[in-house]
Amino acid sequence: MRPTATLLGRLLTCALAVIVTCGAAPPAGADAAHHGGGDRRPRVILMHDPELDDQNTLIRYLLYSNEFDTEGLLYASSGVHWAGDGKGTTWFVPGREYDRPGLNLCPCTSWRWKPGERFIHEAVDLYAHAYPNLRAHAKGYPSPQELKSKILDGNIEFDGDISKDSPGSGLIKRKLLDDEPGPLYLLTGAGQSTIARALKSIKDQYEHTPSWPAIYRKVSQKAIIQSFGDQDDTYAKYIGPTWPDVEFRQMATTIWGYGARRAVLPQDAELLSAAWTKANVSDVGPLGSFYRVWGDGKQMVPDDIFDFFGLSGLTAEQLREKGYIVWTSLQEKGSWISEGDTSIFMNLLDNGLRAGTDASWGGWGGRAGTDVAPDGTASADYASTRWFRAAQHDFATRLKWTTTRSHAAVNHAPDVTVSGRLDRDIRPGRTVTLNGRITDSDGNAVTATWWQYTDAGTYPGTVSLTQRDGAARVRIPRDAQPGQTIHLILQGTDAGTPALTSYQRVVLTVRS
User: pTM to 2 decimals?
Assistant: First the structure.
């Protein structure tokens, strides 16, 4: 979120901003892929079911695929989408949506899964058209052929079924057991049965061998699950009890989903409107046209009674008369529907917030905790809504990248750096100087602001902070206790259209 004087005055401990004028743009293609620092891209396996918000999330992911080492793009089942085995086998789990009072639609052979579903393939096909332009604006974009080779079926047959291996579970197993350093992020906007099956297969193979303790430690240290909820109960029933040392990050947020209008800040409501969505998403390039919006005439699965989003000009009662289950309020034609699972990868973006370091640090995908909203109330939603404008502007800009190879024709995020270590030890009563630098490859002026992210730090108070020309002097309070942390962020927002924001976070740890 772009700071305003009022908001900064209420939330932050600093109120000074400087304007930094930056040099001319580099040659096309020379813009750094990482504008927040760091050389190693996160290794990820992405899993989705055929819900329209998963399709929208996938579009955003592909626009940022230069910032990831994509190991797999998997079709996955969930409690609301599963393909069946094609053999007429029926399936039923009590309490699912088909088991609502008055419905009783299952046992059935599949649920809300189109035969031959290939929305991931279709998205990558459209990415292929955008690829030549994207790579002119940032390094690291994978080739369409590479991405296509990563598309596999996970455990798609039945909701929560981990009874047998799938190509996707086999991939996860191999990647968890390989010798590549660092974490493997298992990102799922669907259920976790494909992950659970991979872990079960590892346990079944090694549990009764001398190598089991080492294998268990290796897998537990490597796997990080970032999921939008537990959409098929396999975390609760298998992963959590059986693999308690595997880190699970709950990434569910309101702002990215069907309930976004309940969470969005008043000044950001326009970002969900038909006018903004049409101008910045739907009418922009091949991937923008694939993005689902209200009243677009599309449906993920033909005759799906839960998917009425493609229809327009009908009241809720008229939709019910047609047999639809109207489970959320109707909106303006062409406006935002949902991008519900985007939070599963947003904290891994290299925007300088380093939000993937710890689930409590917070970033564009939210934070494991509550933040203090502008009205002074504690809000879990504000942990993600505070960044929504910055994230949407960045998304809109990357879509514009897909339409041109000219570096000068579109905006690029500024580069924000801080000299020295980003994680530092400091003693109470001492003063630390932080030297920041912001450059902009487009030559735009940049507004630079240091602020204390009090919600992410464990020191409960505010620090004395003064700043000038990108440098900040911070005095550590004498009542700060050993082990407490203070999070400080240098934020740079350029004067381009739309305005883009990058950051650099410094974490100070109090020592005795």
Answer: 0.93
